[in-house]
Every structure is written in C-alpha cells, then in structure tokens.
Amino acid sequence: MDALINDIEIIKAKTTKINDVDFDNLTFGKILTDHMLECDFKDGKWQAPKVVPYQPITLDPSAKIFHYGQSVFEGMKAYKDADGTVWLFRPLDNFKRLNISSKRLAIPELPEDYFMNGLKALLKVDSDWIPRNEGSSLYIRPFIFASGKGFHASPADEYKFIIACAPSGSYFSGEVKVLIEEKYSRSANGGVGFAKAGGNYAGQFYPTQLAVDKGYQQVIWTDDNTHEYIEEAGAMNIFVRINDTLITGPTSDRILDGITRKSIIELAQSKGIPVEVRKITVSEVVEAAKNGSLKEMFGAGTAAVISPISGFGYKNEDYDIPEMEDAYASFLKKHITDIQTNKSEDPFGWRYKVE
Amino acid sequence: MDALINDIEIIKAKTTKINDVDFDNLTFGKILTDHMLECDFKDGKWQAPKVVPYQPITLDPSAKIFHYGQSVFEGMKAYKDADGTVWLFRPLDNFKRLNISSKRLAIPELPEDYFMNGLKALLKVDSDWIPRNEGSSLYIRPFIFASGKGFHASPADEYKFIIACAPSGSYFSGEVKVLIEEKYSRSANGGVGFAKAGGNYAGQFYPTQLAVDKGYQQVIWTDDNTHEYIEEAGAMNIFVRINDTLITGPTSDRILDGITRKSIIELAQSKGIPVEVRKITVSEVVEAAKNGSLKEMFGAGTAAVISPISGFGYKNEDYDIPEMEDAYASFLKKHITDIQTNKSEDPFGWRYKVE
Ligand SMILES: Cc1ncc(COP(=O)(O)O)c(C=O)c1O
Ligand SMILES: Cc1ncc(COP(=O)(O)O)c(C=O)c1O
User: EC number(s) on record (chains A, B) (predicted)?
Assistant: First the structure.
C-alpha cells in the first residue's frame, strides 16, 4: 500500500497555519488545514491526484458549477488515538456513495485508488491537524464539481475533485429542537435525494431558516406527496424510540443512505436492542409523544454523530421529549465513538487504520 | 435613466476578442463577450455593481457554491434591430423571477436598479457583440452564487452576482424528439422546481443522457408522484395542440413560470387561438397521438424560443407528430420574434429599449 500512497505527488506548503489554531475551542468546518488533494477530470479521464498547498480555485464565469449545480460531496472524519495512530470510519462506504452520487449527477466516477490513496497521502501530510481532544476530529470533505465551461444545460466536460479538511468540534451547540415539515420538501420520488448532491442542501436553507425563526434548530423532512411520513433531517437520518423499540425509516431514492444510520442499526441489534426499519408516520410519533411512549428521538450523521432531539413542533403544537437516564442515544454514541477512536474492540471491522 | 446607467463604474478590457468570432456560425453559449457585470454581497449588503473585463473568478475551496449548490440564474436575450437599436424582452420579469428564485434559495434579494442599470451598462459596453443575423441574439446570463466560506450546511454570508453574455445561435440543432419520463423526476411538491436554482438542472442530466442514448433530445418531465401529468422540459415549458386548441399545464411550485410561456398564451389568445391552461395527462396525449387529434407539441423558452417537437416516446412506443402547414408553432414563433426584434408592433408593451 505504501508504494501507492507514495505514488501521489506531494507539493508542500511553505508555511503552516497550525500555530494560530485553538484546538480546545474548535467550531465546525471553518478552519482549513495546510493542504488539499486536487484531481482534475479532463480529456475524458481523471488525471493523477496531487497533494498541494490549500489554495484558491480559479474558474471561468461560465464554469457549469455556477449555473447548473453539478456537484457532489462526502463527509468523513479522521481520529487520532492515544498512540497517535490515525483512524477512519468505513471510508470505502463514503467512496462508494460518492460514485453513486456522481452517477446520478452525470459526473464521471472516480477510481478507488485515486480516492483512497489520495486521502491517505493528504492525512499523512496534514497529520498534525488531526485533533486528539474528546469530541473533536478532523472533518474531511471530498467534493467534485463541474469546472467545464458553457451555458448549454448539459453535463460539463471537465471536473475537479478536491479533498479539504477542517479540524472540527461539535456540529450543534446546545439542544436540538426540530420542526416536522408540513409544506416544504427536500426531495422528489425519482429525484436526487439519495445522492449527496449540492442542490439538495441549498433547497433546505429557506425552510430551515423559517424553522429557526420559530425557535427550532432543524427541519424533519416528510415525503413530498402526503407529508405523513418522517424521512430525515438536514444532514442526519432520524431514529425514534417508542417504548423500547428503536425505529428508523427505510432508505429510498429520496433519502440518503447514511453510514452512521446503518452502523447504528447493526450496533443496536448486536446489543440486543429491538430495531425496526419501517416507515414512520408523523401521527404515530405525535400519538406516542402524547401518551408518553415516545422515549427518544435522535439524529445520526457523520458531522452530528448522534444528536438527541429534545422536542419537536408539528401543526403549531410543541412536544417535549424529556431527557432520560439510560438513553439509547448516549449508549450508542459512546459505543460508536469508542470504535471510531480506537478505545474499544471493533467487532464489525468498521475502523480503518491509516498508515 | 442615463445618469443611473452612468452611475455604474466601467473598467474596460484592454483588448477585444470580437474579431475572432464568426457571427454567421454561432453555437449556443460558448463564446463570451469582452465584459461582465460583477456585484458582491458582503457585510450584509449588495455592493455597487461594476462592469469589468470578462475574467476568471477566484474562490476559496470551502466556498459554499462548491458544496451546497446555493445558486440561481436567469436567461434573457438582447436583439439589435436594423437601426442598431438594442432591445430586451420583458426584462423586469426576469429580474423579479431572479429574486423569487433567490428567496427560495435563501440568497439575499437584489435591488432592481443594480440589476437593470448594471445590465444596461454592460450591454452598452458590449454593444458590438449583439448579433444582427436572423435567428441569432445575445444570450444574457445573470447568475448569483454563494461565495461565502465554511462547511456548515447553512446559507453563505457572501454572494457574487454576475451577468455574462454570449452571442448565440439556436439552442437545438435539428429535430427535437422527446421522451416522456416514467421514472425520474425534476422536482418535488414543496421543493425548488419553480425556482431557477442550479441544482434543478444537474439533476436532469443523467435521465436526459439516458434519453439521448435512446435517440431523444429531451425529457418531458411528469409529476413525481404519479408520472401521469405532463409538466415541462429541461429548459422549456410545453404546449400541445389537440385539434385546434392550444393547451399548456398550469404553473405550480414544481414548474418554472416561463416568460415565453405566458407571452405565448397571451399572444395566441389575442390571435383568436383557443387556449386552455389546465393539467395535461400523458394518457390524453397518447390517445390524441393515436387518433390523429394531436396536431402539434412544442417547447417554449428563452434559449429555445419555440421548438417544434417531431415525436415522443412513452412506454417503449414511439409516436410521430407529422409536420403540418399553418402550424401554431411557426405562426407564434414568427410573431414573438418579430416583437422581440422590433420588426412589428408591440401591442403588449413587452419590448424594452436599451438606451
Ligand atoms: C441528507 C443527509 N442525511 C443523512 C446524513 C448522514 O449520513 P452519514 O451518516 O453517512 O454521514 C447526511 C450526512 O452525511 C446527509 O447529508
Ligand atoms: C425549467 C425551465 N422551464 C422553462 C423555461 C422557460 O422559461 P423562459 O420562457 O422564461 O425562458 C426555462 C428557461 O428559462 C427553464 O429553465
């Protein structure tokens, strides 16, 4: 493997910004490391990736990313354990999902070794940037966008694949209350909701702002046809616990197949927690909140890890979800982060050592 | 007005590319003029727009356009008549729609004078680029994208508004056959389909490629829930003529409120053509094609003007729409382009003189 890592050309930054960084007070995704991976698609193929100093991107104003939203991305994290070893979590799943997203957006798929070896080379060069503090990690953002030119509404002939990294703390600060959406939607049947396509996120900003103005932090999306089924949140899949059963909706072409979600399903099952993967109606959640059987609700995603939800709004009513002892959320969060950060055994083989 | 036009700062290009351009053989949207309008949103407000030499844009890799598809655009055309006077077509409608799109995408709305005066100043500086040839025009692309930084999935704090122009010939070359879509969708109820949001276009590329591979030029989108209603095409609204009635679907939050569409409705009505604005089912179109009452089908949009459709595919069957004499498409196209290019009276007040 090492030979392949070394196959990646490295152009080192002349200076480092790391001394300006307060690693004890990291926010999310604002401070970027010294390097990035860069790889261009042109002349019909992906060119060799390179690690280069983190630097601005220069594009023609007619580059298709500015006009037609042709872009996809991924979100991953790297962790450093007590021995200084660097770990990723199921990175091949991110790679595969990136290509699934690319295909739906008519972006050429990436070779696996460009992604994996490029990522590993970058993490080696920027290894000092990987936080060791509890609750912090290096957030990794692989993304691809259309750099090819022209106003014709058709796929570009050139693309850029970049991996940039940001040492980050937690995604949410404070409690998370959600609004169950009755009007706006995130995705269509037969649309791009299952892809991590840029446009899926911008479309959520306005409805989310309306929810924030009403005192919520996030929107829970429902299906666009009836608004009767709970789908997912902005960048998290959703779990509810009714009595002792943990329930999450099935994935579909409207919903992202989250890596945290599927890991939680497996982890919970292995711990003897009853898990159901089935459609969740808004009315059963409201009913359960009313009769006290709704014990927990939480979001699950790479950025937010597991985020307990303290209440939800629906049809102008607010429902509290009181914090409980022995919550599944804290139990599962501890188990999954212990695996991620090499503090426990990894019976599932999810952890991936970067060497 | 002139004083305001002159309020726009102009920085002229040192050289011109115009002598390299073959105005008799223009394609669509590939050759850009010498200048562009540029206007930044920062510190909470839109800064004064400037006309500057057409030049590359430099952005941080964490600029939100690369990650979250936060962008909107417009498409307009400028025409030069025999006297050299420059005309736009209903430009205020484009301005208003841009702000409608921006609002849905959580992008700050633009002041009208920045848009209109900026556009007029740009057209003045690049006036020599406006083609006079029949069938050609200056395609104008106003667009706004998120230039603000950070990986948090929330609206950016900085944006760029740019207008770039490309002397262009026709959008389609050759006949247009369409595929009525049964699986994929363009937009969701409660989504962003009515906005000219970048992400709406990238999502169409893959299904369109599948259609192109089968020998069609465009997809006709249907509703994402039942796929039983005809909605619109990639960058055109759709009209069908059954017997002598011209029918187009109503706009909705899934469909772009096209300026060409609404102009055609008004124009046709004023010429005594019976027009119906109502939902169109795929089955009635198939039925009409079978029994010979489907006389015409055409797309309508700024880029494509009026594009007759020569046939459609649905459920693995192909249906021809034979060319007819006295087609509404050619009649309406002639009338609308005569108005646009100042060859006829403009009883509707649609034409807008640029001075
Ligand atoms: C829309 C959406 N849903 C769910 C998730 C969670 O997926 P994962 O656990 O793979 O990070 C994300 C974020 O990645 C997302 O963007
Ligand atoms: C999706 C879509 N529908 C319809 C149209 C036609 O609208 P207009 O006539 O305003 O150009 C366009 C292009 O502008 C479009 O992008």
Answer: 2.6.1.42
For residue A62, give the nearest of B62, B164, B187 by CB distance: B164
Q: Is A2 helix (H, G, I), strand (E, B) or coil?
A: helix
How far is it between the farthest Cα atoms of chain B? 62
Chain A contact for B57 (CB, 8 A cutoff): yes
Q: With contacts defined as CB-CB under 8 Å, which chain B residues touch A155?
A: 205, 209
Closest C-alpha residue for ligand 1 atom 7: A258
Q: Tokens 């669509």 identify what position?
A: B28
Report the candidate in B75, B80, B100, B104 with the shortest Cα–Cα distance to residue B90. B75
Please give the distance, rounded to the nearest whole angstrom, from the Cα atom of residue A301 to the centre of ligand 1. Answer: 5
> What's the gap in Å between B1 CA and the centre of ligand 2?
29
- Average pLDDT on B284-289 reads 98
Domain boundary among B148, B168, B188: B168
Classify residue B26: in a domain, yes or no: yes
pLDDT tens, position by position, A241-295:
999 999 999 999 999 999 999 999 999 999 999 999 999 999 999 999 999 999 9
Q: What is the mean pLDDT of chain A?
A: 96
How far does the CA of residue B339 sit from the closest CA of chain A (Å)?
25
CA of A75 to the centre of ligand 1 (A): 8
Rounded percentage of chain B residues whose pLDDT exceeds 90: 95
Chain B residue with minimal CA distance to A155?
B205
Q: How is A111-156 classified by DSSP, letter by letter? A: PHHHHHHHHHHHHHHTGGGS--STT-EEEEEEEEEE--B-SSSS--
Identify the domain containing residue A290 by its residue range: 176-340
Instruction: Tell me, yes or no, whether B161 lies in a domain.
Output: yes
The model carries a pTM of 0.97
The CATH number of the domain where B234 resides is what? 3.20.10.10
Cβ of B74 closer than 6 Å to ligand 2, yes or no, is: no
CA-CA distance, A235 to B153, in Å (whole number)?
A: 8
Q: Which two tokens stand for residue B282?
A: 């795929």
Query: Is the pLDDT assigned to residue A3 strictly greater than 80?
Result: no
User: What is the least distance, in Å, from the CA of B143 to any CA of chain A?
Assistant: 7
pLDDT category of residue B3 using cuts at 50, 70 and 90: very low
